[in-house]
Amino acid sequence: MAKPNTHDSRPSLAALSAPLVERLMADAPMLRLGIRRVGGACVVDAGIDHPGGLEAGRRIAELCMGGLGRVAFGPISSPPSWPFGVTVHSAQPVLACLGSQYAGWSLSHGSGKGAFFALGSGPGRALARQEALFDELDYRDTADAAAFVMEATTVPPAELIAHIAATCGIVADRLTLVLTPTQSLAGTTQVVARVLEVALHKLHALGFPLDRVVDGIGMAPLPPPGGGFLTAMGRTNDAILYGGTVHLHVTGPDDAAEDLAHRLPSAASRDHGRPFAEIFAAAKGDFYAIDSMLFSPARVTVTALDSGRSFHGGTLAPDLVERSFRDVR
Fold it and tell me: Does residue 249 share a domain with residue 175?
């Protein structure tokens, strides 16, 4: 059982997410998920050999936020051909998004054709603490169980599972890995549910003080899953880059809030203006050749709580969303 975080007054991500893991596994048949043991760990298949679905993706997104976020489906007005979207809210967006949901732990094993690679996200990251970000957040969690979410199309090898468990300081049979291929229904949902996390990540990259972020909510259209990885990757990115909206509530001076509203949207990037699949192809498949400032929501509102003034930046691009959701690569 997860133990409370004893290092500060902030909640334990492991403790909050543990019931979500238990319910996910208990409802696996209803959610069309597969459950198996690999190297002692519990591996949840949400789109590889088992179909999963939208509700599975919604629950996985909440798990990925360490139990500090709420994810819901609902109607949206833009783009008109795709009337449903995902709304994400957290009362502790920095810890939920950067401390848990952000895919920050690079995990790999082997080389060549049989190599495994994935980015680990979820509450287990705060146990592993393999990223300098946790020193900046000044956060450390304590628990005897860990959960991770990975965008993966294959099951991690037992050797990598043993490494993950050892790094977290737990035994392998207390480790849960949830696998969500991007092109699956669950994978598409949990990626688009990162609309708030993407905003927090860029805010951090811009140097805005994280301790000034009080609350946050975001929304993005829900794309149809792609038949292949490239199509799915393009659609999920475009849902956020050209269809995503985020509202942040911050403390501090008005000029800082206004500057953030202008710099945060994806339109501030030199690569803005084309579907992501085209940008990726032009970069010859090299993510590092793409401007990192592109990865942010299309439209942003920043409310300065000290004055009550709100500032707006960016705009939706429904034509690009429409184009992306219909194109197949």
Answer: no
Which CATH number do you get for residue 124? 3.10.340.11
Q: What CATH number does the domain containing 225 carry?
A: 3.30.1030.10
Domain that holds residue 13: 1-65+101-181
pLDDT in 10s for each residue of the chain, 329 residues: 444 444 457 899 999 999 999 999 999 999 999 999 999 999 999 999 999 999 999 999 999 999 999 999 999 988 999 999 999 999 999 999 999 999 999 999 998 888 999 999 999 999 999 999 999 999 999 999 999 999 999 999 999 999 999 999 999 999 999 999 999 999 999 999 999 999 999 999 999 999 999 999 999 999 999 889 999 999 999 999 999 999 999 999 999 999 999 999 999 999 999 999 999 999 999 988 999 999 999 999 999 999 999 999 999 999 999 999 998 76
| DSSP secondary structure letter of residue 298 | S
Domain match, 19 and 47 both: yes
* The one-letter amino acid at 46: A
Residue whose tokens read 């598409």: 188
Q: What pTM was computed for the model?
A: 0.95
- Please check whether residues 218 and 319 belong to one and the same domain: yes
DSSP letter for each residue of 160-203: HHHHHHHHHTS-GGGEEEEE--TTSHHHHHHHHTTHHHHHHHHH
**49 lies in the same domain as 172:** yes
